Amino acid sequence: MDRDSVAVSGVGAVSPAGLGVHALWRAIEDRRVLTGPVTRYDLSRYPTQRAAEVPPGAVAALDSLVPPHESLAARYLAAATLEALGDAGLPAHRRRGRLGLFVGTVMGTRPVLDRAIGRGPLGVPDRTFARPEELLTAVRRVVTVDGPAVLLAPGCSAGNEAIAAGAAAVASGEVDVAVCGGADELSLEVFAFFTSMRALAADTIRPFDAGRKGTMPGEGAAVLVLERAERIAGRGRAPLAHVLSTASAADAHNLTQPHPDGAGLIATIQTCLDRARVEPDDVDWVCAHGTGTPANDGVEARAVAKALGGRRRPVLSSVKGQLGHAEGAAAVLEAVIGVRAIAHGLVPGNVTLADPDPECGGVDLVEPAGRRGPVGRVLSQAYGFGGAVCTVLLGKGAPDAR
Q1: How are the residues of the chain apportioned to helix, strand and coil, as percentages rounded to the nearest 5?
Q2: Which of 114, 120, 326, 390 pairs as cysteine with 160 (C-beta 3.0–4.6 A)?
Q3: What span, in angstroms and rounded, lies between the C-alpha atoms of 292 and 92?
Q4: Buried b vs exposed e over 297-327: b needs ≥16 C-beta within 10 Å?
Q5: DSSP letter assigned to residue 328
Protein backbone atom coordinates (compact mmCIF):
# COMPACT_ATOMS: atom_id res chain seq x y z
CA MET A 1 0.00 0.00 0.00
CA ASP A 2 1.21 3.51 -0.82
CA ARG A 3 1.37 4.75 2.75
CA ASP A 4 0.59 8.35 1.92
CA SER A 5 -2.31 7.77 -0.42
CA VAL A 6 -5.35 6.53 1.49
CA ALA A 7 -7.39 8.90 3.62
CA VAL A 8 -10.81 9.11 5.23
CA SER A 9 -13.03 11.72 3.58
CA GLY A 10 -16.34 10.97 5.30
CA VAL A 11 -17.97 8.96 8.07
CA GLY A 12 -21.49 7.79 8.84
CA ALA A 13 -23.18 5.76 11.55
CA VAL A 14 -26.37 4.28 12.92
CA SER A 15 -25.86 3.16 16.50
CA PRO A 16 -27.60 2.63 19.85
CA ALA A 17 -27.12 6.39 20.28
CA GLY A 18 -29.42 6.99 17.29
CA LEU A 19 -28.93 8.19 13.74
CA GLY A 20 -25.70 9.86 12.73
CA VAL A 21 -22.11 10.28 13.81
CA HIS A 22 -22.94 13.35 15.89
CA ALA A 23 -25.26 11.31 18.12
CA LEU A 24 -22.66 8.56 18.44
CA TRP A 25 -19.82 10.90 19.37
CA ARG A 26 -22.00 12.85 21.81
CA ALA A 27 -22.79 9.59 23.63
CA ILE A 28 -19.08 8.80 23.83
CA GLU A 29 -18.27 12.27 25.16
CA ASP A 30 -21.12 12.12 27.66
CA ARG A 31 -20.03 8.63 28.81
CA ARG A 32 -23.53 7.25 28.34
CA VAL A 33 -24.01 3.50 28.70
CA LEU A 34 -26.40 2.54 25.92
CA THR A 35 -27.19 -1.03 26.92
CA GLY A 36 -30.66 -1.51 28.36
CA PRO A 37 -33.88 -3.55 28.15
CA VAL A 38 -34.59 -4.86 24.66
CA THR A 39 -37.96 -3.84 23.21
CA ARG A 40 -37.84 -5.73 19.90
CA TYR A 41 -37.89 -9.31 21.17
CA ASP A 42 -39.22 -11.30 24.10
CA LEU A 43 -36.06 -12.34 25.93
CA SER A 44 -37.72 -13.60 29.10
CA ARG A 45 -36.14 -17.04 28.70
CA TYR A 46 -32.61 -15.70 28.42
CA PRO A 47 -30.25 -14.94 31.32
CA THR A 48 -30.36 -11.26 30.40
CA GLN A 49 -32.92 -9.15 28.62
CA ARG A 50 -30.47 -6.34 27.93
CA ALA A 51 -28.53 -5.27 24.86
CA ALA A 52 -27.56 -2.13 22.97
CA GLU A 53 -30.54 -1.51 20.71
CA VAL A 54 -30.95 1.21 18.10
CA PRO A 55 -33.76 3.32 19.61
CA PRO A 56 -37.24 2.65 18.16
CA GLY A 57 -37.55 6.34 17.22
CA ALA A 58 -34.37 6.13 15.17
CA VAL A 59 -35.61 2.99 13.44
CA ALA A 60 -38.84 4.78 12.54
CA ALA A 61 -36.87 7.78 11.24
CA LEU A 62 -35.17 5.52 8.66
CA ASP A 63 -38.40 5.70 6.64
CA SER A 64 -37.53 9.25 5.59
CA LEU A 65 -33.94 8.34 4.66
CA VAL A 66 -33.86 4.96 2.89
CA PRO A 67 -36.33 2.69 1.08
CA PRO A 68 -38.11 -0.14 2.91
CA HIS A 69 -36.24 -3.41 3.36
CA GLU A 70 -36.97 -6.52 5.42
CA SER A 71 -33.49 -6.39 6.96
CA LEU A 72 -32.85 -3.70 9.54
CA ALA A 73 -29.09 -4.20 9.10
CA ALA A 74 -29.46 -3.38 5.41
CA ARG A 75 -31.35 -0.18 6.20
CA TYR A 76 -28.80 0.83 8.83
CA LEU A 77 -26.02 0.35 6.28
CA ALA A 78 -27.78 2.33 3.56
CA ALA A 79 -28.42 5.25 5.94
CA ALA A 80 -24.82 5.25 7.21
CA THR A 81 -23.54 5.19 3.62
CA LEU A 82 -25.60 8.21 2.63
CA GLU A 83 -24.38 10.13 5.66
CA ALA A 84 -20.74 9.24 4.98
CA LEU A 85 -20.91 10.26 1.32
CA GLY A 86 -22.55 13.54 2.30
CA ASP A 87 -19.84 14.11 4.88
CA ALA A 88 -17.24 13.52 2.16
CA GLY A 89 -18.93 16.00 -0.18
CA LEU A 90 -19.69 13.26 -2.71
CA PRO A 91 -23.05 12.77 -4.45
CA ALA A 92 -24.75 9.41 -4.26
CA HIS A 93 -25.19 9.40 -8.04
CA ARG A 94 -23.61 11.06 -11.10
CA ARG A 95 -20.21 11.60 -9.61
CA ARG A 96 -16.77 11.34 -11.10
CA GLY A 97 -14.69 8.30 -10.33
CA ARG A 98 -15.33 4.62 -9.68
CA LEU A 99 -16.96 3.66 -6.37
CA GLY A 100 -16.49 0.29 -4.71
CA LEU A 101 -18.46 -1.15 -1.80
CA PHE A 102 -16.77 -3.25 0.90
CA VAL A 103 -18.97 -4.48 3.76
CA GLY A 104 -18.29 -6.66 6.79
CA THR A 105 -21.00 -8.56 8.66
CA VAL A 106 -21.55 -11.55 10.91
CA MET A 107 -25.27 -12.25 10.58
CA GLY A 108 -26.02 -10.44 7.33
CA THR A 109 -29.77 -10.54 6.69
CA ARG A 110 -30.29 -13.77 8.63
CA PRO A 111 -32.15 -12.08 11.53
CA VAL A 112 -35.19 -11.75 9.24
CA LEU A 113 -35.74 -15.41 10.07
CA ASP A 114 -36.12 -14.63 13.78
CA ARG A 115 -39.74 -13.78 13.21
CA ALA A 116 -40.39 -17.47 12.44
CA ILE A 117 -38.95 -18.77 15.72
CA GLY A 118 -41.60 -20.49 17.84
CA ARG A 119 -44.25 -20.55 15.12
CA GLY A 120 -43.98 -24.17 14.04
CA PRO A 121 -43.20 -24.58 10.33
CA LEU A 122 -41.21 -21.75 8.81
CA GLY A 123 -43.60 -18.82 9.07
CA VAL A 124 -41.67 -16.47 6.81
CA PRO A 125 -42.44 -16.12 3.10
CA ASP A 126 -39.71 -17.44 0.80
CA ARG A 127 -38.85 -13.94 -0.35
CA THR A 128 -37.61 -13.06 3.13
CA PHE A 129 -35.18 -15.96 3.40
CA ALA A 130 -31.78 -14.75 4.52
CA ARG A 131 -29.63 -13.60 1.61
CA PRO A 132 -26.43 -11.88 2.78
CA GLU A 133 -25.98 -10.02 -0.51
CA GLU A 134 -29.18 -8.13 0.26
CA LEU A 135 -27.07 -5.91 2.53
CA LEU A 136 -25.39 -4.66 -0.64
CA THR A 137 -28.66 -4.45 -2.57
CA ALA A 138 -30.04 -1.97 -0.05
CA VAL A 139 -27.05 0.33 -0.60
CA ARG A 140 -27.33 -0.02 -4.38
CA ARG A 141 -30.87 1.33 -4.16
CA VAL A 142 -29.58 4.67 -2.88
CA VAL A 143 -26.03 4.85 -4.27
CA THR A 144 -24.55 4.15 -7.69
CA VAL A 145 -21.93 1.43 -7.19
CA ASP A 146 -19.93 1.05 -10.41
CA GLY A 147 -16.94 -0.75 -8.90
CA PRO A 148 -16.58 -4.02 -7.00
CA ALA A 149 -19.13 -4.88 -4.34
CA VAL A 150 -17.68 -7.25 -1.75
CA LEU A 151 -19.22 -8.81 1.36
CA LEU A 152 -16.78 -10.07 4.01
CA ALA A 153 -17.73 -12.34 6.90
CA PRO A 154 -14.70 -13.51 8.93
CA GLY A 155 -16.51 -13.14 12.24
CA CYS A 156 -16.33 -10.02 14.38
CA SER A 157 -13.15 -8.78 12.68
CA ALA A 158 -15.28 -8.23 9.56
CA GLY A 159 -15.54 -4.44 9.86
CA ASN A 160 -11.79 -3.93 9.93
CA GLU A 161 -11.40 -6.39 7.05
CA ALA A 162 -13.78 -4.21 5.03
CA ILE A 163 -11.63 -1.16 5.76
CA ALA A 164 -8.49 -3.09 4.80
CA ALA A 165 -10.02 -4.28 1.53
CA GLY A 166 -11.25 -0.81 0.62
CA ALA A 167 -7.90 0.80 1.48
CA ALA A 168 -6.08 -1.69 -0.73
CA ALA A 169 -8.49 -1.01 -3.61
CA VAL A 170 -7.95 2.75 -3.34
CA ALA A 171 -4.16 2.42 -3.04
CA SER A 172 -3.97 0.17 -6.11
CA GLY A 173 -6.18 2.42 -8.22
CA GLU A 174 -8.90 -0.22 -8.55
CA VAL A 175 -11.42 2.34 -7.26
CA ASP A 176 -11.43 6.08 -6.70
CA VAL A 177 -13.85 5.90 -3.78
CA ALA A 178 -14.22 3.02 -1.33
CA VAL A 179 -17.30 2.81 0.86
CA CYS A 180 -16.13 0.63 3.76
CA GLY A 181 -18.87 -0.46 6.11
CA GLY A 182 -19.97 -2.90 8.76
CA ALA A 183 -23.54 -3.79 9.66
CA ASP A 184 -25.45 -6.13 11.96
CA GLU A 185 -28.71 -6.11 13.88
CA LEU A 186 -29.90 -7.74 17.09
CA SER A 187 -30.67 -11.39 16.62
CA LEU A 188 -32.21 -14.11 18.74
CA GLU A 189 -29.62 -16.49 17.32
CA VAL A 190 -26.83 -14.32 18.69
CA PHE A 191 -28.50 -14.28 22.12
CA ALA A 192 -28.78 -18.06 21.99
CA PHE A 193 -25.18 -18.43 20.88
CA PHE A 194 -23.74 -16.26 23.64
CA THR A 195 -26.04 -17.91 26.18
CA SER A 196 -24.72 -21.35 25.20
CA MET A 197 -21.18 -20.12 25.84
CA ARG A 198 -22.19 -18.50 29.16
CA ALA A 199 -20.73 -15.27 27.78
CA LEU A 200 -23.60 -12.84 28.46
CA ALA A 201 -23.33 -10.20 31.16
CA ALA A 202 -26.44 -9.86 33.29
CA ASP A 203 -26.25 -6.14 33.89
CA THR A 204 -23.23 -4.26 32.46
CA ILE A 205 -20.30 -4.96 30.18
CA ARG A 206 -17.10 -4.19 32.09
CA PRO A 207 -14.08 -4.47 29.79
CA PHE A 208 -10.79 -5.06 31.62
CA ASP A 209 -12.51 -5.10 35.02
CA ALA A 210 -11.62 -7.80 37.55
CA GLY A 211 -15.35 -8.48 37.99
CA ARG A 212 -16.27 -8.71 34.31
CA LYS A 213 -18.83 -11.41 33.53
CA GLY A 214 -19.41 -11.20 29.81
CA THR A 215 -20.64 -9.12 26.91
CA MET A 216 -23.98 -8.01 25.45
CA PRO A 217 -25.05 -7.85 21.83
CA GLY A 218 -25.28 -4.51 20.08
CA GLU A 219 -26.30 -3.40 16.62
CA GLY A 220 -25.96 -0.70 14.01
CA ALA A 221 -23.86 0.20 11.01
CA ALA A 222 -20.94 2.47 10.30
CA VAL A 223 -19.12 3.60 7.17
CA LEU A 224 -15.78 5.15 6.28
CA VAL A 225 -15.37 6.71 2.85
CA LEU A 226 -11.79 6.27 1.65
CA GLU A 227 -10.07 8.13 -1.17
CA ARG A 228 -6.59 9.22 -2.15
CA ALA A 229 -5.59 12.28 -0.16
CA GLU A 230 -4.88 14.30 -3.30
CA ARG A 231 -8.36 13.59 -4.63
CA ILE A 232 -9.88 14.94 -1.40
CA ALA A 233 -7.67 18.04 -1.62
CA GLY A 234 -8.80 18.53 -5.22
CA ARG A 235 -12.32 19.17 -3.92
CA GLY A 236 -10.98 21.80 -1.51
CA ARG A 237 -11.33 19.51 1.51
CA ALA A 238 -8.96 18.10 4.08
CA PRO A 239 -8.83 14.42 5.08
CA LEU A 240 -10.49 13.54 8.38
CA ALA A 241 -7.72 10.98 8.99
CA HIS A 242 -5.31 8.74 7.11
CA VAL A 243 -5.35 4.95 6.96
CA LEU A 244 -1.69 4.45 7.78
CA SER A 245 -1.72 0.65 7.57
CA THR A 246 -3.79 -2.49 8.04
CA ALA A 247 -2.86 -6.07 8.86
CA SER A 248 -4.68 -9.39 9.20
CA ALA A 249 -3.83 -12.73 10.77
CA ALA A 250 -5.47 -16.02 11.70
CA ASP A 251 -4.05 -17.75 14.75
CA ALA A 252 -6.41 -20.74 14.25
CA HIS A 253 -6.05 -21.68 17.92
CA ASN A 254 -9.65 -22.40 18.88
CA LEU A 255 -13.12 -21.87 17.48
CA THR A 256 -14.20 -19.50 20.27
CA GLN A 257 -11.13 -18.79 22.42
CA PRO A 258 -8.31 -16.37 21.54
CA HIS A 259 -4.76 -17.67 21.41
CA PRO A 260 -3.51 -17.57 25.04
CA ASP A 261 -0.44 -15.59 23.96
CA GLY A 262 -2.37 -13.29 21.62
CA ALA A 263 -0.14 -14.40 18.76
CA GLY A 264 -2.37 -13.18 15.95
CA LEU A 265 -2.98 -9.80 17.55
CA ILE A 266 0.72 -9.28 18.26
CA ALA A 267 1.53 -10.10 14.64
CA THR A 268 -1.00 -7.62 13.24
CA ILE A 269 0.11 -4.81 15.56
CA GLN A 270 3.76 -5.28 14.69
CA THR A 271 2.96 -5.46 10.99
CA CYS A 272 0.90 -2.25 11.17
CA LEU A 273 3.76 -0.42 12.89
CA ASP A 274 6.31 -1.72 10.39
CA ARG A 275 4.22 -0.83 7.35
CA ALA A 276 3.53 2.68 8.62
CA ARG A 277 7.07 3.18 10.00
CA VAL A 278 5.57 4.12 13.34
CA GLU A 279 7.15 3.47 16.74
CA PRO A 280 5.12 1.95 19.61
CA ASP A 281 5.25 5.19 21.60
CA ASP A 282 3.74 7.07 18.64
CA VAL A 283 0.38 5.31 19.18
CA ASP A 284 -1.78 7.61 21.30
CA TRP A 285 -4.74 5.28 21.79
CA VAL A 286 -5.39 1.59 21.39
CA CYS A 287 -9.09 1.14 20.72
CA ALA A 288 -9.41 -2.38 22.08
CA HIS A 289 -11.67 -5.19 20.98
CA GLY A 290 -12.47 -5.33 24.72
CA THR A 291 -15.62 -7.45 24.87
CA GLY A 292 -15.76 -7.74 28.66
CA THR A 293 -15.54 -11.54 28.57
CA PRO A 294 -13.18 -13.33 30.97
CA ALA A 295 -11.50 -15.08 28.03
CA ASN A 296 -10.74 -12.02 25.90
CA ASP A 297 -9.62 -9.06 27.93
CA GLY A 298 -6.61 -10.39 29.82
CA VAL A 299 -5.16 -11.99 26.69
CA GLU A 300 -5.72 -8.81 24.70
CA ALA A 301 -4.14 -6.54 27.30
CA ARG A 302 -1.05 -8.73 27.59
CA ALA A 303 -0.70 -8.93 23.81
CA VAL A 304 -0.96 -5.16 23.42
CA ALA A 305 1.60 -4.64 26.19
CA LYS A 306 4.02 -6.98 24.44
CA ALA A 307 3.48 -5.64 20.93
CA LEU A 308 3.66 -1.97 21.97
CA GLY A 309 6.42 -2.22 24.53
CA GLY A 310 8.16 1.16 24.59
CA ARG A 311 9.04 3.91 27.01
CA ARG A 312 5.49 3.98 28.37
CA ARG A 313 2.58 1.60 28.78
CA PRO A 314 0.16 1.67 25.83
CA VAL A 315 -3.01 3.68 26.45
CA LEU A 316 -6.00 1.36 26.07
CA SER A 317 -9.77 1.46 26.37
CA SER A 318 -12.86 -0.20 24.94
CA VAL A 319 -16.15 1.46 23.99
CA LYS A 320 -18.11 -1.80 24.15
CA GLY A 321 -19.06 -1.02 27.73
CA GLN A 322 -21.16 1.76 26.21
CA LEU A 323 -22.19 0.35 22.81
CA GLY A 324 -22.37 -3.38 23.38
CA HIS A 325 -20.80 -5.74 20.87
CA ALA A 326 -22.25 -4.94 17.44
CA GLU A 327 -20.44 -7.88 15.79
CA GLY A 328 -19.78 -7.02 12.12
CA ALA A 329 -20.52 -3.36 12.76
CA ALA A 330 -18.35 -3.06 15.87
CA ALA A 331 -14.95 -2.44 14.27
CA VAL A 332 -16.22 0.23 11.87
CA LEU A 333 -18.16 1.98 14.62
CA GLU A 334 -14.90 1.99 16.58
CA ALA A 335 -12.99 3.31 13.55
CA VAL A 336 -15.49 6.17 13.26
CA ILE A 337 -14.94 6.91 16.95
CA GLY A 338 -11.21 6.80 16.28
CA VAL A 339 -11.56 9.41 13.55
CA ARG A 340 -13.57 11.61 15.91
CA ALA A 341 -11.04 11.07 18.71
CA ILE A 342 -8.32 12.42 16.41
CA ALA A 343 -10.43 15.43 15.47
CA HIS A 344 -11.56 16.31 19.01
CA GLY A 345 -8.49 15.36 21.04
CA LEU A 346 -10.26 12.92 23.33
CA VAL A 347 -9.32 9.37 24.22
CA PRO A 348 -12.58 7.71 25.33
CA GLY A 349 -12.49 6.11 28.76
CA ASN A 350 -13.36 2.66 29.98
CA VAL A 351 -16.69 4.05 31.17
CA THR A 352 -17.82 0.99 33.15
CA LEU A 353 -14.43 0.20 34.69
CA ALA A 354 -14.63 -0.08 38.50
CA ASP A 355 -11.88 -2.48 39.56
CA PRO A 356 -9.05 -2.84 37.01
CA ASP A 357 -7.94 -6.42 36.49
CA PRO A 358 -4.36 -6.92 37.75
CA GLU A 359 -3.81 -9.14 34.70
CA CYS A 360 -4.07 -5.96 32.62
CA GLY A 361 -1.32 -4.15 34.50
CA GLY A 362 0.93 -3.96 31.45
CA VAL A 363 -1.32 -1.40 29.78
CA ASP A 364 -2.50 2.05 30.81
CA LEU A 365 -6.25 1.58 31.23
CA VAL A 366 -8.00 4.89 30.58
CA GLU A 367 -10.13 6.07 33.48
CA PRO A 368 -13.91 6.35 32.88
CA ALA A 369 -13.76 10.11 32.32
CA GLY A 370 -11.44 9.73 29.32
CA ARG A 371 -8.43 11.93 28.57
CA ARG A 372 -8.19 15.23 26.75
CA GLY A 373 -5.10 15.97 24.69
CA PRO A 374 -3.67 15.55 21.19
CA VAL A 375 -4.56 12.25 19.52
CA GLY A 376 -2.37 11.69 16.48
CA ARG A 377 -2.55 7.93 15.95
CA VAL A 378 -5.18 5.35 16.84
CA LEU A 379 -4.70 1.59 16.67
CA SER A 380 -8.04 -0.22 16.38
CA GLN A 381 -8.17 -3.99 16.59
CA ALA A 382 -10.83 -6.67 16.19
CA TYR A 383 -11.06 -10.41 16.83
CA GLY A 384 -13.32 -12.92 15.17
CA PHE A 385 -14.28 -16.44 16.24
CA GLY A 386 -11.98 -19.01 14.69
CA GLY A 387 -8.88 -16.90 15.25
CA ALA A 388 -9.34 -14.09 12.73
CA VAL A 389 -7.67 -10.83 13.74
CA CYS A 390 -7.55 -7.54 11.85
CA THR A 391 -5.91 -4.31 13.00
CA VAL A 392 -6.18 -0.83 11.47
CA LEU A 393 -3.86 2.09 12.21
CA LEU A 394 -5.39 5.54 11.72
CA GLY A 395 -3.46 8.80 11.83
CA LYS A 396 -4.03 12.52 11.79
CA GLY A 397 -1.39 12.99 9.11
CA ALA A 398 0.76 10.92 6.79
CA PRO A 399 2.98 8.32 8.49
CA ASP A 400 6.15 10.39 8.55
CA ALA A 401 4.46 13.62 9.67
CA ARG A 402 5.73 13.67 13.26
Answers
A1: 35, 20, 45
A2: 390
A3: 38
A4: bbbbbbbbbbbbeeeeebbbbbbbbbbbbbb
A5: G
Q: Which of 169, 167, 177 is nearest to 144 (CA)?
A: 177
Residues 179, 167: contact at Cβ < 8 Å? no
> Tens digit of pLDDT for each residue in 69-91?
989 999 999 999 999 999 999 99
With CA atoms as reference, report the closest residue to 157 among 391, 336, 324: 391
> Residue 116's Cα: distance from chain center in Å?
29
3-state secondary structure of 141: coil
The identity of residue 65, as a single letter, is L
Helix axes 21-29, 330-344, angle to 10 degrees: 70
What pLDDT score does 1 carry? 47
Q: Name the burial class of residue 370, with classes exposed (0-12), middle (13-18) and buried (19+) by CB atoms within 10 angstroms of its CB.
A: middle
Distance of CA 373 to the CA centre of its chain: 23
Q: How far apart are CA 71 and CA 356, in angstroms?
A: 39
- Which pLDDT score, from 0 to 100, does residue 197 have? 85
Give yes or no for a contact between 379 and 225, defined as CB atoms under 8 angstroms apart.
no
The CA angle 277-25-389, to the nearest 5 degrees, is: 45
The H or E element containing residue 338 is helix 330-344
- Residue pair 366/341 in contact by the 8 Å Cβ criterion: no
Please tell me what DSSP assigns to residue 242: E
Rg (CA), the chain: 19
- The angle subtended at Cα 181 by Cα 85 and Cα 199, nearest 5°, is 145
- How many residues make up the chain in this entry? 402
DSSP letter, residue 351: T
Confidence of residue 198 (pLDDT cuts 50, 70, 90): confident
Domains of the chain, first to last: 6-234 (3.40.47.10), 241-395 (3.40.47.10)
* Predicted model pTM: 0.95
pLDDT value, residue 196: 87
The whole-angstrom separation of Cα 217 and Cα 158 is 16
Report the alpha-carbon distance of residue 160 to residue 391 in Å, rounded: 7
139-186 pLDDT, tens digit each:
999 999 999 999 999 999 999 999 999 999 999 999 999 999 999 999
